[in-house]
Amino acid sequence: MFSLKDKSVIITGGGSGIGRAISLLFAKQGAFVNIIELNQVAADETVAQILQEGGQAKAYACNIVNQGKVLEVFQQIGRVDILVNNAGIAHVGNLENTSEEDFDRIYQVNVKGAYNCLFVAIPMMKEQGGGVVLNMASVASSVGISDRFAYSMSKGAILTMTLSIAKDYLKSNIRCNCISPARVHTPFVDGFLAKNYPDNIDEMFDKLSASQPIGRMGKPEEIAHLALYLCSDEAGFVTGCDYPIDGGFTRLNN
Ligand SMILES: NC(=O)c1ccc[n+]([C@@H]2O[C@H](COP(=O)([O-])OP(=O)(O)OC[C@H]3O[C@@H](n4cnc5c(N)ncnc54)[C@H](O)[C@@H]3O)[C@@H](O)[C@H]2O)c1
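Above: query sequence and nicotinamide-adenine-dinucleotide SMILES. Below: predicted holo C-alpha cells.
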C-alpha cells in the first residue's frame, strides 16, 4: 500500500521541516524525489540522507518566486507525477504592523511561488495524462488567528487555489488537495520564536504547544504520513479537499 514506485515527485522547500520529512518518506516509498530549494545546502543534506537510505533524489537550487527559473528547473526534471507545494515563510503581525514590504514578501513566496509551480506543472501533468497536487495550507486558511494578517491572507489563497485547480482539472485526471496543519515543530517555528519573542522563547514555545488541545505541536513526520496518503493511488477518490491535521485546534478549541 501507498507505493510511489518510480513516480517523479517535485517537493518545494524539501530542505527543512515538513518538506524534508515528506521528501524522506516519499523516497522510502519508491519515488524519485526532486527537491526545489532556496537553500541549496539544506536540500543537499536531504538528498544525501535519501541516497544513504538507498533512495533516489536530486536537489535543485531555485527561488520559487522566479517563474522563469521554476520553468527551467521543471523542464530539466522532465516529468512531474506529484507536485508538493510546500515552501513557505512566516510573518507575525496584525494589519497595522504589516508593512508593504512584509505583505509583498509573504505574497511573493507563499502565493506567487505556489502559483508559479502550478503554472508550470499543470500543463506537464495534462500532457502526461494526469497527476497529483498537494498544497501546504494551514489552520490559518480558515480560522482567525491573532497577529497573522499577511500569513493568513497567503494561506487562504492556498486553500482557494486548491479548490480552483481541483475543479478546473477534473477531466485532466489531476487531483488537488491541501493540508492544514496547526503548529508543527520545525525550524520555521523555532525561527519565528527567535525573531519575534527573543526574550521569552521557552514561554512562547509552551504557549504554542498548549494551543493544540492535544497538548503539543505536531511532528513533521505526522504531516508526511497524511501527505503520502493524499498523493498515493489509494486516495484516488479524494480531490478538492482541505485536511486539518491540528491536534484538535480547529474544532476542539472551545
Ligand atoms: N511549522 C508549522 O507550524 C506550520 C503550520 C502550518 C503550515 N505550515 C506550512 O508548512 C510549510 C513548511 O513549513 P516548515 O515549518 O517545514 O518550514 P521550514 O522553514 O522549516 O522549511 C521551509 C523551507 O522552504 C524553503 N523556502 C522558503 N522560501 C523559498 C523560496 N522562495 N523558494 C524555494 N524554497 C523556499 C526554505 O529554504 C526552507 O527550507 C510552509 O508552507 C508553512 O507555511 C507550517
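Residues 18 and 232 are 18 Å apart (CA to CA).
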